[in-house]
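Margin note from the TA: students keep mixing up input and output lines. Inputs are the sequences; the output is the structure of the whole complex. Example:
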Amino acid sequence: MRIQTQDFPNRARSALDDDGLRRALSTSNKSFRSSRDRATEELPQWEALRDYGHHAKKRAIEHLPHALDAFRQRFTARGGHVHFADDAEDACALVRSITARHGATRIVKSKSMVTEEIGLNRDLEAAGYEVVESDLGEYIVQLAGEAPSHILAPAIHKSRQDVADLLHRHLGCDPNADIPTMTRAARAALREKFLTADVGISGGNFAVAESGTLVIVENEGNARLTTTLPPVHIALVGIEKVLPLQRDLAPMLRLLCRSATGQQLGSYLSLIGGPRRPGDVDGPEEVHVIFLDAGRLDLWHDPSSREALYCIRCGACLNVCPIYERIGGHAYGWVYPGPIGSVITPRYVGLGRAKDLPQASSLCGRCGEVCPVKIPLPELLLENRAQSVEQGAATTGATVGMGIFGRLARSPRLWRLAMAVGRPLYRLLRRSPAARWGALGAWGQSRTLPQPEGPSFRQRWSQKRQGTTRHEGRTGRTVP
Amino acid sequence: MKPRHRLLDFVGQLGDRTIALADLFSRHEAPVVASRPAPEDDLEGRFHRELDALGGEVIDRPDKSASSTDADALTSWFRNEINTLGRPLQVAVDPQLVEAQGPGHLPGLLNSLRTAGCDVVLAEGQDGLDQSTLAEVDLGITLADLAIAETGTLVETVRPKRPRALSLLPPHHLCIVPRSRLVPDLEAVFDHLGDPTSNDPFQSYFTCISGPSRTADIEKQLTIGVHGPGRLTVFFVDGPVPH
C-alpha cells in the first residue's frame, strides 16, 4: 500500500472535520466494545487466558526459526508448499510465478492485511489478472477504489447510502436498497467468481508449528469458498502468526474471537494441513503458504520491540483508542491503524516517515488493557517516541524546550526561581490570546488552560515539614 | 542493501533440528496451562441453546414416543420445507448417510426424502457431484464428525466421496449429529486429534461451523446469510457409531 504516514497531521485534521465519519466511527467502536466486553466479562478465567496467550506467542516468537522450520516440515510432508519471502517484491513475484504456471486469469481473494502491505492486488492487476475481493467489506472498498480503514471491518467508514450508491453503479442494484438486499446482490455477484476462479488467495490467522496447520477464522464463508473451490490456494502469512503447539489453538481462538467481535468463535474456522489427498472429492490440488518478512525480522532483532510481533490482529486496541475513534483508519496513512499501527508502522516504513504516529496517543493505556496477548502497547509507543528522538526526529522547539526543562529540573534553586516567575506569568497569560500561540498554543488552540489552585507542591511540602497539619487553600477547602 | 534470502537463512540458522518442539518450548520456562470451561451435564441442551442464539435451528422431535422414528421426524420436516418453498426441494446428501453397513448410515433417510417429495442428488464425487451442481441445490445434508456443545459448533473433516463444499455452497445446510459425537468444548476436538503428525484426515483438513454465515460490514448491522449458508439446521440421532 502506498505510504502516506508523513501526511498524518493533515489527514487527521480533515478526518476531524468529517462529521459523517466521526458518527460512523463512534457507532462502530461502541458496538465492537460492548460485544467484546460482554464476551470477556462472562469468562471468569479471561485474565488467566490472556497470560496464556502472551506466553504462547512468546514461545513461538522466541523460537521463531524453529517454529517456521517445523511448520515447513509438517506442511510439506502432506504435499503442501512453503515459501519464505523477504519483502513485497519477493512475495508478489512468488505469487505471480505460481499463477503464471497455472495459466490463471481470474483470482478470488479473502481478507488479508498482509496482501495490503505488499500491494498484491495492484501488482497482479498490472500483470493482467482479474482480482476480486470476496469479503463484503473488502469488496466494497475495492469497488470504491479505497483502502480498508479497519482491520476487521474494512468499510466501516462508509454509510449504507455510500454502499447503496456503489452497488447501484457497479451491480445495477436498487439505489434505495436495504442492507439485506445489498448483501444478497453482493453474494450473487461474487458466487460466480468463486465458481470460476483459477486461484484463491487468502491470509492466515494462525500457523501451528507442531502440526503444520494453517488456520483461517471468518464469518461470511468467503474464506472457505476461496480456499476450497479454486484448484490452487495461495496463503500469505506474516512470520509472526506462528503458534507453537496444537493444544495452543483452542485458547488462542477463544482470545481472538472474543476480543475481535465478542463471538465465542467465528462462524467458520478452516484448519488446513495441505492440499487435497488422492481420493478426495474436492479441495485445492495445490496449497502454497508464503511466509513474509517485510520488516518483521527487524522488529524481531530489536528486543525492546519484539513483543509487537505477538499481535494476533484482533482489532481490540483500535476499538478502545480515543484517537482512532476520532480520526479513523485512513488518517494513519498505511495498512494498520490505531495503537498497533502506531507501534509497528514506524518500524516497517521508517521512524522518520512515520514520526507522528507514536505521538498520536493520549497514553490512556486502554489498548494495553484490552490486548488479548498482553502486548505492552503504551510502553512500545513510548519506545518508538524515544527512538524517534534519538534519530533526530524531534523539532528544534521540542529539543530546546526539553533541554531547558532538564536544566531546571536538575537544580532546586533554578526551579524555585522559574516557578516564582512562571506562576504569576501563567495566571496572566492563561486567558489571554497569547495562550493560543507558541509553546502554550499547541494546547491552548482547542482547550481552556486549567486554573492553578491553592499553594504549590513545594509550598505545601515546606509547610508540612514545619509541622503545620492543615492548610486552607485559596478556595477555602481544607487540605490535609 | 539487505542480503537476499534473509528470511530463508534466518529459518536455516537452527542448532539442533531433532529437538521435539514441546521440549524446546518448555526449556526456558514452566508450561502455562490454560483453563477449560467447567464440564456440563446436558451437552445436547447446551448445544441447542447455543445454536439457537446463533440463529441456527434444531429439529425437535414433536412426538417423543417410541413409535416415532428419526425418519418420521425428518419426513415431516422435509414436507414443511417443501410447503414453504412451493416446489420440490433439490437435496444433495452425504454418501456416508446412505451407505448401508457404513458407520454413518442413517436408515430411512433416502426414503424419507423421497416420500416427502424431494429430488435427491447424491454426492458421489467426480462422477456425481460437481461444484456447479452443488451450487444449484437447495439443501445440503451432511453427517457431523464431531459437535461442540459449548459453542453450538459442527466439525467436519474430509470423508470419502463427500465434497467439502456440501456444507458450504447450498443456501441451506442440514447436519445430522450422532449424540455420541457431541463433545463438551473446543479443547476436546484437539484432544480427539491426538498426534499432530498423524495421517488422520483431520490433520489434512477440517472445518468448524458455528451457525449460519453472517456479516456486519455495513454500518455494523448484522445480516445473516452472506456467502455461506443462510440457514443451518441440526438433527440429533442416536444412530452411527462414534469415531
